[in-house]
């Protein structure tokens, strides 16, 4: 499965650059809002503490210190919530951007040819039966369909069945006797956990420097 993964990994890396720029702007916006709220809480806590410190009572000081500690904990909680909110928003945006990026790659003849070559190469080593069905986008060029069909006839001894599928926006799905090699845009991004881990790692790689 190395060939299709190379396509998606390249697109994920490209997307991470876009996400990083968006992450910085959005995270700083949410972080600043959380900071403002937290600073207001801390300011009020200090004011309340000063008002209660006039009697120099140990118990009063301890209560004030506990309140300040609680306020600091609230600040850390707000930071975590801001980060989690940013993660969710960025991942939702990232999936949309990733699919759009793959669709643009499919529209480029050179990239589309490489995509198809990689995919058919994998299918030839994966699919046992020579009786293939190839599901493809409705708008895939006829000359490319015919050329691939003729080439695969030479490789397989049979011409594959071609089927246009409305919900395939980019890529091909090659199937034979119940086994499929899914090189569609949706198929390439089906490893959601792995890709989200890549995205979150990149999103947070500067998090230590961003601590507030």
Describe what this molecule looks like in 3D.
By secondary structure, this protein is an alpha+beta fold. The chain folds into 2 domains: 2-107 and 192-210; 109-188, no CATH class. It has 7 helices and 4 strands. It has helices spanning 2-52, 58-107, 109-126, 142-156, 185-188, 192-203, 207-210; strands spanning 133-136, 161-164, 173-176, 179-182. Strands 2-1-3-4 form a 4-stranded mixed beta sheet. Strand 3 (173-176) and strand 4 form a beta hairpin. Helix 1 packs across helix 3 and helix 1 (2-52) packs across helix 6 (192-203). The longest helix has 51 residues, at 2-52. The relative contact order is 0.14.
């Amino acid at each position: 499965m190395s060939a299709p993964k190379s396509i998606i990994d390249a697109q994920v890396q490209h997307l991470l650059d876009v996400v990083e720029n968006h992450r910085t702007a959005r995270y700083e916006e949410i972080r600043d809002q959380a900071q403002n709220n937290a600073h207001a809480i801390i300011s009020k806590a200090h004011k309340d503490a000063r008002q209660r410190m006039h009697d120099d009572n140990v118990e009063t000081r301890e209560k004030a210190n506990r309140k300040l500690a609680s306020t600091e904990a609230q600040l850390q909680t707000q930071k975590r919530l801001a980060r989690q909110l940013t993660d969710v928003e960025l991942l939702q945006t990232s999936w949309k951007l990733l699919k759009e990026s793959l669709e643009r790659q499919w529209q480029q003849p050179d990239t589309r040819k490489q995509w198809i070559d990689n995919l058919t190469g994998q299918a030839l080593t994966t699919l046992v039966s020579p009786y293939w069905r190839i599901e493809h986008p409705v708008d895939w060029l006829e000359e490319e369909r015919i050329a691939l069909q003729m080439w695969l006839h030479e490789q397989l001894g049979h011409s594959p069945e071609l089927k246009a599928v409305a919900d395939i926006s980019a890529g091909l799905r090659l199937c034979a006797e119940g086994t499929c090699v899914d090189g569609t845009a949706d198929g390439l991004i089906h490893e959601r956990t792995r890709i989200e881990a890549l995205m979150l790692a990149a999103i947070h790689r500067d998090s230590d420097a961003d601590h507030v």
